[in-house]
Amino acid sequence: GDERCRESPAPAEAQMQAGAEGGGRVSHCCWKCSVTQLKKIFWGVAVVLGVCSSWSGSTQLAKLTFKKFDAPFTLTWFATNWNFLFFPLYYLGHVFKSAEKQSPKQRYRECCRFFGDNGLTLKVFFTKAAPFGVLWTLTNYLYLHAIKKINTTDVSVLFCCNKAFVFLLSWIVLRDRFMGVRIVAAIFAIAGIVMMTYADGFHSHSVIGIALVVGSASMSALYKVLFKLLLGSAKFGEAALFLSVLAVFNVLFVTCIPVILYFTKVEYWSSFDIVPWGNLCGFSILLLTFNILLNFGIAITYPTLISLGIVLSVPVNAVVDHYTSEIVFNSVRVIAIIIIGLGFLLLLLPEEWDVWVIKLLTRLKVRKKEEIPEGNGDIASGLPNKSRRTRPSMSS
């Protein structure tokens, strides 16, 4: 009997052991979840800093480049050619990280399925890749051309309006869910554009620059909405291949435009010796880094954190402009920057944010209702005890 008791624990002890094991499993799972979340937040901070520094750095370097090399379209063409490195860099990551390693040809064929059953044919290249190559070139060219006209702070903050344009186009074209808070954000963006124009007194120079940035933001929004409409969502390898295909389109069909601009002396430089190759390569590397973090950063962190890096580039550019240029931060400009930034942050709210807020408010109300009866019960229970203590004894 003693041996049986030693071998088989009592039911109460068995429940305690099972509870301890279950609690250990729960705590182990919670520990794993917390570590995973901490890693995501840590990588998120690193990605935010990378996005902010690369975007603001490329903007400032482009402004510096135009002092010696006044050729925004040539700079756009040169930087777009670096997109060819997307797929090779992705394949290197695939070789180091994936357990089943494939040859470059096999990986290329697998990623080509994104374009259709027949892969990347000539017809698909002209119907699905070429339009996005044109939009990519226009987005970057208009942005760089605006840097020549106005300061980098205004350019960076006005480009944040592309998030509002994406929502409006998605609501109209893709029939996305209507959200009142995003309509408010779009109104903030439009109001910020008008106030930014008013901050410089509606001069022709600043109006042209603001129009160029708004055009760049519109082209960027059109690129994103058409990509979702025509191609849907892409995996990392498919996105890398698509961006490399844009570089091929740029080399084959856009190269003639900088040549024409050079011989017509629209974008002319006297000799190749005065071309600041260091600035051109630095700008291209920073822009490539920004696009890599923007497209592949969601593999290691939250997409919202990546978008915050674009907003944080605005104060960085403002600090640099304060010390390097003659920018005047009057009240109208500051209010316009705050309004556009607030609209951008409102657009980062998830679609079900209102449901989460309602649930949080109902939980708080339930807790308050539970706390009030408990307090009343304690007071009521204390009254009889007090009366018992003060009642005189009959035996005495």
UniProtKB/TrEMBL annotation:
Residues 386-396 have a biased composition (Basic residues). The keyword Transmembrane applies. Residues 9-19 have a biased composition (Low complexity). Residues 1-24, 374-396 are annotated as: Disordered. Keywords: Membrane, Transmembrane, Transmembrane helix. GO terms for cellular component: membrane. Residues 43-197 form the EamA domain. SUPFAM superfamilies: Multidrug resistance efflux transporter EmrE. Pfam families: EamA (PF00892). The chain crosses the membrane at residues 41-62, 82-99, 120-143, 155-174, 181-199, 205-227, 239-262, 300-320, 332-349. GO terms for biological process: thiamine transport. The keyword Membrane applies. InterPro entries: EamA_dom, EmrE-like, Solute_c_fam_35_mem_F3/F4. PANTHER family: SOLUTE CARRIER FAMILY 35 MEMBER F3, SUGAR PHOSPHATE TRANSPORTER DOMAIN-CONTAINING PROTEIN. This is Solute carrier family 35 member F3.
